[in-house]
Write a structure and sequence with these properties.
By secondary structure, this protein is an alpha/beta fold. The strands form two sheets. Strands 3-2-1-4-5-6 form a six-stranded parallel β-sheet, sandwiched between helices. It has a six-stranded parallel β-sheet with strand order 9-8-7-10-11-12, with helices on both faces.
Length: about 350
């Protein structure tokens, strides 16, 4: 399909190649919502990892989910995916993922219009290869995805208002799922009589992001002692060792849910939590999109582009000259995170909880 042939009326079926990480997936929600506005009558399918079914279970901006997981070698996975895409007769493919593989699947599937950034040497595979925006490393990552939809709207209508509006996340969890979350917590020993505080002390893709476990333990004990809170530790199965180490260092009891819940259950638990304190991880973006008070401890990464984009989220950071280094392991003394104390995290978190409670009361 040539650029001049891209018409709203010709687009009936759209496939969006989503991102591979939970936090990134949450940051695509505003772009997906804008895509629904731009193409209100199209059938929109999100092609991404299997966990997306649980994250987007109640999404009103999608019609369908198509799971893509590599099985066997890369070539066989690409061929299998391209056959499935071709069978669905998509009119438009939007590629949030930057990889060459995503564009190859869309091209082999013969999707007539293929829109995405011309990264990773894939421009020839796209019908509409977009240049990286000049502000890519200066604005939040959410605008990186929104810009794709902005360019699409320009192609379809000649102009766009996508980047002129406040990004909308609005990740919602239904009442029935929240009741199930309460029962899950009670089954694991939560009293549900005081505040519910979630802590995420791990990180799946970087050890350097982790605030020291003994500090999480000290923080957790303060929530129990001073607020009579139920403290729950959350995260993926890969973070189980970190959570166990925190629980063992605590003087008080905590509830370790790390690796013991499906993503949909974890999302529901976060939706009823009074606070999440976390490293720069996926749960930070989920809780913030759920509009729950979220305090994110930043060390080697850059909050300018990857902080949770929400008024309910705050960042605590004490950057030395070497930050942000973006390294996965600190080669020196981890000073970016050891400079942050449990006392200041507790003080900030307490103020956030008090503010949230006041706003609800009003």
């Amino acid at each position: 399909m040539k650029r001049s042939e891209l018409k709203v009326e010709s687009i009936k079926r759209v496939v969006v190649r989503g991102t591979n990480w939970v936090g990134d997936a949450v940051m695509t929600i505003p772009a997906l919502r804008e895509l629904r506005r731009v193409l209100p009558d199209a059938h929109i399918t999100l092609a991404t990892r299997s966990w997306s079914e649980e994250l987007f279970r109640d999404a009103d901006f999608l019609d369908d989910l198509l799971v893509y997981e590599r099985r066997g070698n890369a070539l066989s996975s690409v061929m299998r995916a391209s056959r499935e895409w071709r069978g669905r007769r998509f009119d438009l493919a939007i590629l949030f993922q930057n990889a060459f593989e995503a564009a190859l699947i869309a091209a082999l599937a013969r999707v007539p219009a293929r829109v995405g950034y011309g990264t990773d040497g894939r421009s020839a595979l796209l019908t509409h290869a977009l240049p990286l925006p000049s502000w890519h490393n200066e604005r939040h990552e959410v605008f990186y995805y929104l810009n794709i939809i902005s360019e699409l709207e320009k192609l379809l209508r000649g102009s766009s208002v996508v980047l002129d509006q406040e990004p909308r996340f609005e990740l919602r969890v239904g009442g029935a799922r929240q009741l199930e979350a309460v029962e899950l917590l009670k089954a694991h020993g939560a009293s549900m009589k005081g505040p519910l505080v979630a802590l995420c002390p791990g990180s799946t893709n970087s050890r350097a992001k982790r605030w020291p476990g003994e500090r999480y333990a000290a923080l957790a004990d303060r929530f129990v002692d001073e607020m009579k809170a139920d403290v729950i530790l959350v995260g993926s199965a890969e973070e189980m060792e970190v959570s166990r180490a925190v629980a063992e260092r605590m003087r008080r009891k905590s509830i370790v849910l790390t690796g013991r819940t499906k993503l949909a259950e974890a999302v529901a638990v976060l939706s009823i939590s009074d606070l999440l304190v976390t490293n720069d991880t996926g749960p930070a973006h989920i809780a913030a999109a759920l509009e729950r008070p979220t305090l994110v401890i930043f060390g080697p990464t850059d909050p300018t582009t990857t902080r949770p984009f929400s008024r309910s989220a705050q960042v605590i950071r004490r950057p030395p000259e070497c930050a942000p280094c973006m390294l996965r392991d600190c080669p020196i003394d981890h000073r970016c995170l050891t400079a942050i104390t449990p006392d200041e995290v507790f003080a900030r978190a307490s103020a956030m909880m008090k503010r949230a409670h006041t706003e609800v009361a009003v």
